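**User:** Once you have settled down, spend some time on the protein underneath, comparing sequence with structure tokens, and judge whether sequence predicts the tokens.
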Amino acid sequence: MLLQNDTDYQDEILKNIIESNQDFFKIQFDHCHFTNCDFSSTQFLSCSFENCSFENCNLSNIRIKDCIFRDTTFTSCKLIGILWHECRQKSFTLSIKFKETVIDYSSFYKLDLQKCSFEDVHATEVDFTEANLCKCKFNNTNLSGTTFIHCNLKKADFSTAVNYQFNLSENQVKDAIFSLPDAIQLLYSFGIKIH
């Protein structure tokens, strides 16, 4: 199946589609399920994904300028290098669930992510600068090199996350949950040495 621009897809099961390095615009996906698809380095411009799921898909380096993601789940996907802040979500909450997915080198700059969840995610060097992550759960998520600057992390759950390190005084962290031994890394920004 080849995707067509300026088309609505509803209740579709899309399997084994290889559309890498393509340009798509004004496509609306509603209640669609993508399995084993490769959209790497593709541009989705002004597209909408509502109540969709992606499983075992490669969406690395896609462009998502002016796209909408509502109630979308990514399971066992590669989502490397995506600039999520290019979405049209700036005035409302991005609603995505990431499960067993790689989101390395992606950016969520200034996005409202209160309705996002991260479960068994590999998130190396992801940029969450100025993001609202209030009540987010980072279950079994590797946050190595990830940036948290001027974020709302109130009630965020890092209890099973690993390799996180950020400056507590640069973020809102009231009622956030951390666990040992990883929480000790949060003291480094204060120049504290622990032996």
Q: What stands out?
A: The longest strand covers residues 72-75. The CA atoms of residues 107 and 127 lie 5 Å apart.
